[in-house]
Design goal:
18 helices; single chain; alpha/beta; 556 residues
Length: 556
């Protein structure tokens, strides 16, 4: 069908959600707004679905959710996997509705849905998949995207986001399904009464917290003063519970960001990577004077931190926290006598090269994988298949995701918040803040600077523009980076990298590195810039020069 025909079909059929029909009546058939809603199906990949909430095939709504869930059910039946699915959701607009609709479809297709009765962190969903031994998991979240987005992450029976092969197989089943089938679905109440929909019990959530606490590296009460912001998301319950378990009881929650609110009224981009999202927490820190500011994103799989520095507070980057945690975990495991033989840490190709220096110091094998925590989860599964899961000590990615145990297969901000508090208390006993500890590591290993620049290209034209930029970079790659010759180019779409093919380009010089990739979850091209120099100012200048050159040559 063309976009106008699809528009008319949806206007006639999309009657279960009044918001959708109201939206469609405000759209002129044949207009750009109509075209953008219907020119394609919302893309389903290894991250599942993510898009703007609204009416149409290129939006996230109950009909797209239902169709995807029918395809997932068909996939589980064909693959011989357990005919059950665990479902979690966060605070985003319509997350609870989308989770219930997925549960209804699962029940209506002869499977069993395990549904969290309230919003919980994404890692708690990964845990529930393994706890109930389900064939798959669904988490309704758009992570740290702006409020207009929502998403539908799909997990495999190992609690890890589905593989490339599984995503392709699920997509094939989705494409075989109609958007508006003649199919009666049970209500939530009918499903609960029949047992085809079951609420996930408190025993599951407490077992998750037990598993997180088992990753603790320091015995005894951690007498810290903490300011915490869940950024109006799902982290409040689990983060405050785990901190209380390890003795951190002086916790002040940022009041404007305490309660779940999918509109995220205090920050347009609820991402602890961005200073604006942490600003209210920083303001409260200046009044309360805590040892630590913790912030978790709406689905509580990413953690941001600020620590005292002089009379103010310094934000710690994702790369810095990854390096700090790697160094701390190694030190404490050696001190505790729990460092395994042939330890393994895992990070991504876009994360800091400083991790290599820290890993080398402690004799840790550092593995690099593609961007996306599912690839770190796959490394845990590989170690399990080799009967040595104990070799895994830490995984992290520069985008504020960390995991120190094998209890889940996704980044876990509950786990990270606990470890960060323990690490802060450990350094405080030595008279140091985390800022001072990080500066010590820079002096030991070198001054590594890592920057990220994102360029947004929305709409149908935006997709074409991003593809054109990547084509140009491949046809005419940069010859120099900040005045230094490019000495190596890696195209991760080609064979021979040792990793699955991915639309990522890497350019290396003597002092720095540039990686370029389209985002898998947003209409953006991302530039990852890194440099090592004799001082941080010099490394920062190198990164800035590479950014200026790349933007001028390829992004204008």
């Amino acid at each position: 069908m063309d976009t106008v025909a699809l528009y008319n079909l949806w206007l006639a059929k999309a009657v279960d959600d009044p918001d959708l029909t109201s939206e469609l009546r405000g759209v002129e058939p044949g207009s750009d707004a109509c075209f953008d809603r219907f020119y394609r199906d919302l893309e389903f990949g290894t991250g599942g679905l993510r898009g703007v909430i609204g009416a149409g095939t290129n939006r996230l709504n109950i009909y797209v959710i239902r169709r995807a869930t029918r395809g997932l059910c068909d996939y589980l039946k064909a693959a011989g996997l357990p005919l059950s699915v665990a479902i979690g959701y966060d605070s985003r607009i319509k997350s609870d509705l989308f989770a219930r609709e997925a549960a209804r479809v699962i029940a209506g297709n002869g499977l069993t849905a395990y549904l969290y009765p309230r919003l919980e962190p994404t890692p708690a969903l990964s845990w529930a998949v393994r706890y109930y031994k389900t064939g798959a998991g669904i988490c309704v979240t758009a992570s740290h995207n702006p409020a207009k987005y929502n998403g539908y992450k799909v997990y495999g029976p190992d609690g890890c986001q589905i593989t490339l092969e599984a995503a392709a197989a699920v997509l094939e089943r989705i494409n075989a399904r109609e958007m508006f089938p003649e199919e009666a679905l049970p209500t939530l109440e009918e499903g609960l009464a029949a047992g085809s929909i079951r609420y996930i019990g408190e025993d599951c959530l407490e077992a998750f917290l037990d598993a997180v606490q088992a990753q603790s590296l320091t015995a005894g009460k951690q007498a810290l003063k903490v300011v915490y912001t869940p950024l109006n998301g799902a982290g409040l319950e689990c983060v405050t519970k785990i901190l209380k378990r390890i003795g951190v009881e002086d916790v002040t929650v940022v009041p404007q960001q305490e309660k779940p609110d999918g509109h995220f009224p205090t920050c347009p981009y609820p991402n602890p990577e961005i200073r604006e999202a942490m600003e209210l927490g920083l303001q409260l820190c200046r009044e309360v004077k805590p040892d630590l500011l913790l912030g978790t994103d709406p689905d509580c799989d990413r953690m941001g931190v600020a620590v005292p520095e002089g009379d103010d507070y310094r934000l710690i980057t994702g790369n810095e926290m990854g390096v700090l945690l790697l160094d701390y975990v190694c030190r404490k495991r050696l001190e505790n006598g729990t460092m395994p033989q042939r330890p393994v840490a895992v990070t991504t190709i876009v994360s800091t090269d400083m991790a290599d220096a820290v890993a080398k110091e402690y004799g840790v094998e550092l593995r690099r994988v593609l961007t996306g925590f599912k690839f770190i989860g796959e490394q845990i599964a590989m170690l399990e298949n080799e009967s040595h899961p104990e070799r895994y000590i830490l995984g992290f990615e520069e985008s504020y995701g960390y995991l120190s145990g094998t209890h889940v297969r996704d980044k876990d901000a509950v786990n990270a918040s606990m470890l960060c508090c323990e690490m802060t208390a450990w350094y405080r006993a030595q008279g140091k803040t985390l800022a001072q500890a990080m500066d010590d590591l820079y002096r030991k290993h070198g001054f590594f600077r890592n920057d990220l620049a994102s360029f947004t290209f929305e709409g149908a034209d935006g997709m074409a523009k991003m593809a054109s930029i990547m084509d140009t970079l491949r046809a005419n790659p940069p010859k120099v980076l900040a005045g230094e010759p490019v000495t190596g180019i890696v195209d991760y779409q080609e064979a021979g990298t040792g990793l699955p093919k991915s639309n990522v380009l890497q350019f290396q010089s003597a002092s720095g590195k540039l990686l370029v990739r389209p985002s898998g979850t947003e209409p953006k091209i991302k530039l990852y810039l890194s440099a090592r120099a004799a001082s941080m100012d010099e490394a920062e200048a190198l990164c800035a020069a590479v950014l200026r050159e790349t933007e001028a040559a390829y992004l204008r």
